[in-house]
Specification:
The complex is a heterodimer of chains A (137) and B (135).
Chain A (H helix, E strand, L loop, with lengths): L2 E9 L6 E2 L19 E11 L5 E10 L8 E10 L16 E3 L4 E2 L7 E8 L5 E9 L1
Chain B lengths: L2 E10 L6 E2 L20 E11 L6 E9 L8 E9 L7 E5 L1 E8 L7 E8 L5 E10 L1
Antiparallel strand pairs in B: 1-9, 2-8, 3-7, 3-9, 4-5, 4-8
The chains are: A mainly beta (137), B mainly beta (135).
Chain lengths: 137, 135
Amino acid sequence: MSKTLTVEGDLGTVDSRAVITTQGSVTAPSLVTPAGARRIDKVIVAVGAEGLADGSGVFFLRLGGNATKNGEQVIMIGAGGRIAIQAGSDAAPSIGVPFILENADIEVSPSDTISIAAEMAGSDLGTGHVVVTLVFA
Amino acid sequence: MSKLYRSREGEATAVDTKTQLTTLGSEAAPGPLLVPAGAKKIVGIIMAACESFAAATGFSAFIRLEGPGLQGGPESLATLAGGVPVATGGNGSVVAQKIDIDLPVTPSNEILIFAEMAGTDVGAVSFGVTLIFEL
């Protein structure tokens, strides 16, 4: 049986590890792996940045904590770039569609704490935001 | 089978120039990317890249994998292409792509990841690459 855990949060500064711990209206969701879970089977993640600064950068995820049996796993999830910051009604939006990693096969311990963090690297593209779902099996 | 995910990122800032990806965001010097003990092969590669749109031109981009950790020698993979008609309004948001692959590796040996921008110089291209090892 699958079980999901979703968290979201801001990426406020480039080259800075941001621990992702909130879930919208739930400010402190449980970060404990489900009882019986042996692995992360899928990772679903979407990321974007507001585009208030020029440059190009990438975004990645760090999955760690006591629950990850083989240590921290670092996974690239997306990229962004822009030039000449746009304003007004014709400003181009930044839309980050989800990246879905199937058959992730990341070993975890059941009923243990997992740490989910993300980073923006390269140029600072303004504040980024990320939402992550882990599907345990 | 358990999988391990190892990543590096960096920027290619000159066209037709081999650029090693050596950093990992807040880790300015994560050290060599070594094949994990017990790993038999790379079963997948995740690539994310985007240009800075700083020049009105078109380009393409690719990565190279090299080093003693690769039993079959160097490999190269197409990553991205794009362009912009004016250097005053580009905007991009790119989702990462995963490809399945079968590259035998030698544990405890290094793999070097390089990136290149080709065509004409678009300013800069940021690259992020994840190697997926299978134990």
